[in-house]
Amino acid sequence: MSAVLTAEQALKLVGEMFVYHMPFNRALGLELERYEKAFAQLAFNNQPMMVGNWAQSILHGGVIASTL
Fold first, then answer.
1. Which domains does the chain have, with CATH numbers?
2. What is the pTM of this model?
3. Which of 5, 22, 42, 58 could potentially form a cystine with 53 if both were Cys, beta carbons 3.0 to 4.6 Å apart?
Protein backbone atom coordinates (compact mmCIF):
# COMPACT_ATOMS: atom_id res chain seq x y z
CA MET A 1 0.00 0.00 0.00
CA SER A 2 1.28 3.43 -0.91
CA ALA A 3 2.02 5.90 1.92
CA VAL A 4 0.66 8.74 -0.20
CA LEU A 5 -3.12 9.07 -0.32
CA THR A 6 -5.01 10.39 -3.27
CA ALA A 7 -7.29 13.36 -2.62
CA GLU A 8 -10.31 11.05 -2.77
CA GLN A 9 -8.78 8.61 -0.27
CA ALA A 10 -7.87 11.45 2.11
CA LEU A 11 -11.39 12.88 1.92
CA LYS A 12 -12.89 9.48 2.72
CA LEU A 13 -10.48 8.96 5.62
CA VAL A 14 -11.28 12.34 7.18
CA GLY A 15 -15.01 11.67 6.97
CA GLU A 16 -14.66 8.22 8.51
CA MET A 17 -12.42 9.52 11.31
CA PHE A 18 -14.92 12.25 12.22
CA VAL A 19 -17.91 9.93 12.40
CA TYR A 20 -16.59 6.51 13.36
CA HIS A 21 -13.50 7.24 15.49
CA MET A 22 -14.70 10.11 17.70
CA PRO A 23 -16.34 8.60 20.80
CA PHE A 24 -19.05 11.24 21.22
CA ASN A 25 -20.08 11.03 17.58
CA ARG A 26 -20.23 7.24 17.89
CA ALA A 27 -22.38 7.60 21.03
CA LEU A 28 -24.79 9.74 19.03
CA GLY A 29 -24.91 7.04 16.37
CA LEU A 30 -23.91 9.42 13.59
CA GLU A 31 -23.78 7.88 10.15
CA LEU A 32 -21.93 9.46 7.26
CA GLU A 33 -24.33 9.32 4.33
CA ARG A 34 -22.47 11.55 1.90
CA TYR A 35 -19.15 13.38 2.08
CA GLU A 36 -17.65 15.57 -0.61
CA LYS A 37 -15.10 18.35 -0.66
CA ALA A 38 -17.59 21.06 0.34
CA PHE A 39 -20.53 19.02 1.64
CA ALA A 40 -21.28 16.42 4.29
CA GLN A 41 -24.56 14.70 5.01
CA LEU A 42 -24.92 13.00 8.39
CA ALA A 43 -27.84 11.09 9.83
CA PHE A 44 -28.77 9.68 13.22
CA ASN A 45 -31.78 8.13 14.88
CA ASN A 46 -33.43 10.34 17.46
CA GLN A 47 -33.01 8.76 20.90
CA PRO A 48 -34.58 9.77 24.23
CA MET A 49 -31.11 10.57 25.65
CA MET A 50 -30.71 13.28 22.99
CA VAL A 51 -33.67 15.37 24.11
CA GLY A 52 -32.74 18.61 25.84
CA ASN A 53 -36.26 20.00 26.27
CA TRP A 54 -38.66 17.27 27.37
CA ALA A 55 -41.68 19.58 27.35
CA GLN A 56 -41.32 20.20 23.62
CA SER A 57 -39.27 17.12 22.70
CA ILE A 58 -36.47 19.24 21.21
CA LEU A 59 -32.96 17.91 20.67
CA HIS A 60 -30.25 19.00 23.08
CA GLY A 61 -28.10 21.83 21.74
CA GLY A 62 -24.96 19.69 22.04
CA VAL A 63 -26.45 17.13 19.67
CA ILE A 64 -27.35 19.84 17.17
CA ALA A 65 -23.90 21.48 17.44
CA SER A 66 -22.14 18.14 17.01
CA THR A 67 -23.92 17.47 13.75
CA LEU A 68 -23.12 20.89 12.32
1. 7-67 (3.10.129.10)
2. 0.63
3. 58
